[in-house]
């Protein structure tokens, strides 16, 4: 296993691993998504307080968790790139940013759509919502910093430092509902807040689907990125020729 | 309020507008990510092919 | 020290520096990050008196009195409570026992020598809890609670 991971540091090996893994991420994603949606929208009962309005939770919570997990992966991969100068770690960090930003946008948008009927407001400036918005800005800053340099090495260095600095925001988001009074409710996951087993299953299915979605998008985007970075090497030339013809 | 009333024929009644809007926005975001990734890939392939054929 | 260890130390310093700065920053700005004050905070003088702020807590049972569009109710944190007056549309989830956050300011209403704080709200938002369950489970939980 360790040997296998070490071999992924080679762009050519990493490229072909991504190619091979795509169907292994795509089909589980589709299966978990379909069963998860069925469980979320049909099997799960209505909530005692919020009726059917609570069903937004099945997208909102997985995408909020993923928005933070992807950021952590991005910062750690960036750190590995800084310390061991592994180029493929830089690739994973770089392609994770737009995916993480996507999850953050979904979390913010579904939260706003949920807030309107339940709280009575689309948006409030409480600590939870504000820190999640800061996360979106961190992703955007990372992406623009990364594209600001022509040399991929300098770009990776500068943006990885930004990603590591921004790590401080993750515990702030997580504990914001504990440390401060917020309009956002406390944790539902891991505290027994979700009392119905069907609701728990639906949430777990959607969470697993989100993880496969992230892995799928990383492997799709990493292939493009590797081709760009290694465009002067022999195997990329052959690969491009074989793909186009 | 008219939007909420208009969509109340869908499942989930008075919350239909909000629930389906949330699921719709999420689907759109995921599809947009996919389309940009695919477009980037084919753009890169075209660019590289041009580059190699010139040399 | 090799070059790699050097970089490792640098990244480690970066991480710990950021977390220290974050900790200090949060400590310094903690007050400003509070979205609302509880009735206990207000009665112990922690809330501002000169500008508007938010009060949060549960709507006290049997305290809601409607008079047209004007609603009177009390917000409690189970220790202290404060009277609130609001004119306008309330969110769907507003009911007795429900969490609410009201924004507005406090006025002192004095009748003779007895002065009472009343909160004039300009906006009332509902705050729901982190529990999700079907109505039957909620009813079952409620009945076991009342048996105790």
Please describe the structure with a list of short key phrases separated by commas or semicolons.
heterotrimer, B: 55 residues, rod-shaped, C: 148 residues, alpha+beta, OB fold (Dihydrolipoamide Acetyltransferase, E2P), 2 domains, 3 helices, 30% helix
Short synopsis of the structure:
The complex is a heterotrimer of chains A (245), B (55) and C (148). Chain A has nine helices and no strands. By secondary structure, chain A is mostly helical.
Describe the structure.
The complex is a heterotrimer of chains A (245), B (55) and C (148). Chain A has 245 residues and is an all-alpha fold. Chain A has one domain (57-240). Chain A has helices spanning 2-7, 11-43, 57-84, 87-118, 127-147, 152-166, 169-179, 197-229, 234-244. In chain A, helix 3 (57-84) packs parallel to helix 8. The longest helix of chain A has 33 residues, at 11-43. Chain A is globular and about 65 Å long. Chain B is mainly alpha-helical and 55 residues long. Chain B has one domain. Chain B is built from two helices and no strands. Chain B has helices at 2-6, 16-54. Chain B is rod-shaped. The termini of chain B are far apart. The relative contact order of chain B is 0.08. In chain C, a hairpin with a 2-residue loop joins strand 5 and strand 6 (114-127). Chains in contact: A-B, A-C. Chains A and C meet through helix 3, helix 6 and helix 7 of A and helix 1, strand 6 and helix 3 of C.
CATH architecture term of the largest domain in chain C = Beta Barrel
Strand content of chain A: under 5%
Number of helices of chain A: 9
What composes the largest sheet of chain C?
5 strands, mixed, barrel
**Oligomerization state:** heterotrimer
| Count, helices of chain C | 3
Mean pLDDT of chain A: 91
Ordered list of secondary-structure elements with their pairings:
The complex is a heterotrimer of chains A (245), B (55) and C (148).
Chain A: H1 2-7, H2 11-43, H3 57-84, H4 87-118, H5 127-147, H6 152-166, H7 169-179, H8 197-229, H9 234-244
Chain B: H1 2-6, H2 16-54
Chain C: H1 3-29, H2 39-43, E1 53-59, E2 65-67, E3 70-76, E4 81-87, E5 99-111, E6 114-127, H3 135-147
Parallel strand pairs in C: 4-6
Antiparallel strand pairs in C: 1-3, 1-5, 2-3, 3-4, 5-6
């Amino acid at each position: 296993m360790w040997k296998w991971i070490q071999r992924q540091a080679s762009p050519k090996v990493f490229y072909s691993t991504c190619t091979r893994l795509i169907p292994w991420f795509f089909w589980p994603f589709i299966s978990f998504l379909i069963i998860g949606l069925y469980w979320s929208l049909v099997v799960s009962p209505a909530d005692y307080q919020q009726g059917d309005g609570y069903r937004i939770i099945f997208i909102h919570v997985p995408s909020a968790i993923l928005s933070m997990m992807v950021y952590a992966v991005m910062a750690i991969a960036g750190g590995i790139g800084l310390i061991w100068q592994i180029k493929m770690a830089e690739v994973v960090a770089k392609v994770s940013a737009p995916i993480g930003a996507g999850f953050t946008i979904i979390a913010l948008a579904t939260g706003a759509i949920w807030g309107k009927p339940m709280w009575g407001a689309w948006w409030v400036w409480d600590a939870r919502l504000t820190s999640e918005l800061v996360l979106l800005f961190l992703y955007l800053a990372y992406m623009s910093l990364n594209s600001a340099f022509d040399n991929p090495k300098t770009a990776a260095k500068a943006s990885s430092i930004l990603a590591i600095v921004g790590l401080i925001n993750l515990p702030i988001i997580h504990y914001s509902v504990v440390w401060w009074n917020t309009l956002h409710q406390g944790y539902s996951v891991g505290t027994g807040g979700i009392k119905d087993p069907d609701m728990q299953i639906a949430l777990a299915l959607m969470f697993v689907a989100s993880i496969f979605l992230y892995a799928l998008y990383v492997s799709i985007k990493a292939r493009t990125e590797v081709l760009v970075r290694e465009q002067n090497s022999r195997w990329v030339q052959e690969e491009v020729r074989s793909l186009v013809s | 309020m008219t939007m909420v009333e208009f969509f109340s024929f869908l499942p989930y009644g008075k919350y239909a507008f909000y629930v389906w809007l949330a699921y719709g926005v999420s689907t759109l975001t995921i599809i947009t990510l996919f389309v940009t990734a695919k477009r980037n890939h084919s753009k890169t392939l075209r660019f590289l092919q041009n580059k190699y054929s010139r040399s | 020290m090799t070059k790699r260890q050097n970089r490792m130390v640098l990244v480690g310093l970066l991480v710990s520096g950021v977390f220290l700065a974050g900790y200090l920053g949060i400590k310094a700005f903690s007050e400003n990050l509070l979205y609302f004050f509880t009735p206990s905070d207000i009665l112990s003088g922690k809330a501002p008196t000169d500008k508007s702020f938010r009060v949060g807590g549960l709507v006290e049972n049997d305290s809601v009195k409607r008079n047209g569009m004007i609603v009177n109710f009390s917000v409690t944190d189970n220790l202290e409570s404060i009277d609130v007056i609001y004119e306008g549309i309330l969110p769907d989830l507003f009911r007795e026992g429900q969490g609410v956050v009201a924004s507005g300011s406090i006025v002192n209403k004095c009748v003779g020598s007895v002065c009472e704080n009343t909160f004039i709200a300009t906006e009332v938002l509902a705050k729901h809890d982190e529990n999700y369950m079907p109505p039957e489970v909620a009813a079952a939980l409620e009945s076991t609670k009342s048996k105790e």
